[in-house]
Amino acid sequence: MRSVSLLLLLLHICTSYCQAGSILIIESYHQEYPWDVNFNQGIRTIVKDKLEFHHAYMNTKRLPTVEFIQQADLAWQQYLTLKPDLVVLADDNAIRLLSSRFAKTEIPIVFLGLNSNPRDYDLHTFTNFTGVLERPLFKRSILLVNQTLANRKDKKVLVLFDNSRTSKAAVESLIQPEQEQLRLGNTQVNLELSLSYTAWQRTVLAAKEKGYDAIYIGLYHTLVDKHGSNTSPSEVMTWTNRNSPVPHFGFWEFSIGSKSNIGGYVLDGFEHGKLAGELILQILAGKEPSDLPYISDKQGQYLFSTAGVEKWSIVIPKEIKAKSIWKD
Questions:
Q1: Are residues 174 and 103 in the same domain?
Q2: What angle do CA 164, 213, 253 make, to 5 degrees?
Q3: Single pTM value for the model
Q4: Which pLDDT value is given to residue 20?
Q5: Which helix (H) or strand (E) holds 276?
Q6: Is residue 32 located within the same domain as residue 119?
Q7: What does the mean pLDDT of the chain come to?
Q8: First vs last C-alpha separation in the chain
Q9: CB 65 within 8 A of CB 224
Q10: Signal sequence span per UniProt (predicted)?
Q11: Are 159 and 60 members of one domain?
């Protein structure tokens, strides 16, 4: 009898283990990309071991646009082979290229990192979709200039991005690319999207001469050199850190550091991933994606580099300093 009981217990344990579902996270970028590293950690913090994790990387920060569809096809084949219980589509390229295919399935889809309007991809018509909108906190971050560079009444800042589809979608919540500038209080904000690393360098070096008090750096991961090859993001930031004639701030956590931007009111990939994880848990508990409204990051985090603040002799107001996280 005891042997039978033990066998039943083992069968129960095996059944519980074998019934553990799987999740496929299809990522627009590459495994080492800081945003991806952070949101994956956020998802795992919430979901823990309730699902077996698998990943497909489309590598669209490094590959030319003409190869994106092929990368999407490879990710789709991985889905067909794996047959997971849930799929995460991470960031605009994966969502844009794969959402219509997944809409024809019944598998629950959670997206994250979407800069575009969901209607651009007809997501609002897909009943098996829910997700997290990525809305960088541009205006609040830029207003930080009024508090940290308080010696000038009227200020002029440059918002600088690469010319990728993701960058164009991201800045639409702040300013239309064709508009090129707007005003936030006493601060004039100009936008520039750089096609190449050479153009980026030229823009940075001319910033002070053109009257800018600061640069706000967004995304810089698709800049190409004179041969058309992708420039390392770390090289872009290291060069900018060494050569910028004015202080430079950032909108994302991964862009802040001793060899990068000084700081900012930033969007954190880890927290963004946690939001996606909460949606995943609700689906695992029986909720339908169509019953779960889209969500977005409600707040950011003040983050500063000690070395950067010291380099530019920036005084952080006490009320901000008390709420800030410091790096290096």
A1: no
A2: 50
A3: 0.85
A4: 65
A5: helix 269-284
A6: yes
A7: 91
A8: 63
A9: no
A10: 1-20
A11: no
Q: Is the pLDDT of residue 42 over 80?
A: yes
Whether residues 129 and 144 share a domain: the answer is no
- Whose tokens are 């077996």? That residue is 52
Extract the tokens encoding 298. Answer: 């409600």
Question: Which residue in 252, 251, 194 sits closest to 223, CA to CA?
Answer: 194
Q: How far apart are CA 224 and CA 46, in angstroms?
A: 37
Residue 250 has pLDDT above 50, yes or no: yes
Tell me how far CA of residue 149 lies from CA of 143, 152, 157, 187, 217, in angstroms: 10, 7, 11, 11, 17
DSSP string, 11-74: HHHHHHHHT-EEEEEEESS-TT-HHHHHHHHHHHHHHTTSEEEEEEE--TTTS-GGGHHHHHHH
DSSP states of 278-328 as a string? Answer: HHHHHHHTT--GGGS--EE----EEEEEHHHHHHTTPPPPHHHHTT-EEE-
Same domain, 123 and 231: no
Count of domains observed in the chain = 2
Structural domain boundaries enclosing 175: 138-266+301-327
State whether the Cα torsion 259-60-278-127 is positive or negative: positive
Whether the CB-CB separation of 289 and 312 falls below 8 Å is answered with no
- Closest by Cα among 254, 270, 226, 212 to 45: 270
Q: Based on the domain organization, do 130 and 210 belong to the same domain?
A: no
- Nearest CA-CA partner of 254 in 36, 27, 45: 36
Hunting for tokens 């750096």 — which residue is that?
217
